[in-house]
Amino acid sequence: MAEQDLLTRLKSEIGPDLTPVRPLGAPGSRALWMVATWIVLGGGILVVGPRPDIGALGAWRSVGFSLVEVAVCFVLVVIGLRSSIPAMAGSRSSALVWMAGALAVHVLVAWGTLERSAMAPQPGDEWRTGLACGVGIAVLSLAPLGLGTVLLRRGLLTRPFLAFGLTGFTCGLAAEAAWRLHCEYSAWGHVLPFHLGALVLPLLVASAAAMLVARRA
Amino acid sequence: MTEQQLSALMTAYQQGDIHAFDGLYQGLRPRLQKYLLVLTRGRSHAGDLLQETFLQIHRSRRTYLPGRPVVPWAFAIARHVYLMDVRKRTRMRTQEIVLDDPLPEIPVPPEAEGLAEKERLQKALGQLPADQIEAVTLHHVWGFTFEEIGATLGIRGVTAKVRAFRGMKRLKEILGAGR
């Protein structure tokens, strides 16, 4: 195809669609929308139904720990948003390292909470309370995940599974960070399977979204 | 055309200036064409992907962040277009990604030019794994830094460096054995 032919053809195709566009904001500034959503969710939980032992935990181990978790989630979202901009994506391995680090921070937070308040569900009531927490966390993660999907879709998803996987995982973690302000149970037998286990749902939803995007591309 | 000029053109293009597209086309086409040739190893196929790459550049123009280098951004889009094409072909089970076609002109790393004549070098390059060819050509031909290669390919800069190093080492071995 002659060079001039190609240029003419391209111009005829793009010409009608050539409207001014505003460049996307930097990933860090766009990720602040997600942070704002998480803070609204956490704040709402604090207003509506804070955990009964919040006084015993103190401000640092309750709200402070959750804010640390949100800060880690912010970094993960930035990595996810960077992967939706060509030539800004990081490597899969570094994303996995950050995900593992974020999970470790959540486990440390659970341990720090357990040290001060070791409440556990009544014997025989573990599954009911556990499932309620799991469902609560999963539901809380969905609205930010929707926002994350919109933010990702505005970019060019060269690695949809990485971008959506990171966002789904992060929304689950952030929802857990908010939910721990409501749930007073800090025992490992409750937190590990039902709080952190609830990350599976947003991850599945995000993977389904990634699959759709990959198929449509 | 320098990166600064390309960046200014890209910004004007984002503002809806069709003439800026002419400049971008002139500045990017030769490089993208060579890059796609490396990826596809098939000239006519590369031509189709070149057209699709410019269309994708148009559709994704908002993802260019002013002030950042344009060439790695455009190369990342070209690579995305290529990978989408590979996926599509795989899905359609047409597996005819022209690997059996005669090798096209693969750009020659200047550093390696003294090792052997061009034709032999191109054949040798064709024997390298695709990821090493990419790293070698992006670094030695187009002068990308390893960090830029990493960002374009979505790998760590160190990994890009290792691929380029291994590619060059293997290239020397192949050329040495052929003497």
Q: Secondary structure elements and their pairing?
A:
The complex is a heterodimer of chains A (217) and B (179).
Chain A: H1 3-14, H2 27-48, H3 54-82, H4 92-116, H5 126-153, H6 160-179, H7 188-196, H8 200-216
Chain B: H1 3-14, H2 18-40, H3 43-59, H4 70-91, H5 118-126, H6 130-141, H7 146-153, H8 157-177
Helix pairs in contact in B: 1-2, 2-3, 2-4, 3-4, 4-7, 5-8, 6-8, 7-8
Describe what this molecule looks like in 3D.
The longest helix of chain A is centred in the first third of the chain and has 29 residues, at 54-82. Chain A contains eight helices and no strands. In chain A, 75% of the residues lie in helices and 0% in strands. The model of chain A has no long low-confidence stretch (mean pLDDT 91). Chain A is elongated, with a radius of gyration of 21 Å. Chain A starts with a helix and ends with a helix. Chain A has 217 residues and is mostly helical. Chain B has 179 residues and is an all-alpha fold. Chain B contains eight helices and no strands. The longest helix of chain B is centred in the N-terminal third of the chain and has 23 residues, at 18-40. Chain B starts with a helix and ends with a helix. Classes of the chains: A mainly alpha (217), B mainly alpha (179).
Mean pLDDT of chain B: 82
Q: Uncertain regions of chain A: pLDDT < 50 for 5+ in a row?
A: none
Q: Biggest interface and which pair forms it? A: A-B, 39 and 43 residues
Extended strand count of chain A: 0
Instruction: Bin the helical content of chain A.
Output: over 70%
Distance between the termini of chain B: 39 Å
**Mean residue pLDDT of chain A:** 91
Approximately what portion of the residues of chain B adopt beta-strand conformation? Answer: under 5%
Which residues of chain B sit in consecutive blocks of at least 5 with pLDDT less than 50? 95-99
> Biggest β-sheet of chain A, characterized?
none
- What's the helix count of chain A? 8
The helix/strand class of chain B is mainly alpha
Principal-axes shape call of chain B: globular
The helix tally of chain B amounts to 8
What percentage of the residues of chain A does DSSP assign to strands (E)?
Answer: under 5%
Note the gap between the termini of chain A: 25 Å
Bulk shape of chain A? elongated
- What multimeric state do the chains show? heterodimer
Secondary-structure element order of chain A, as H and E? Answer: HHHHHHHH
Cα Rg of chain B: 17 Å
The amount of helix of chain B comes to 55-70%
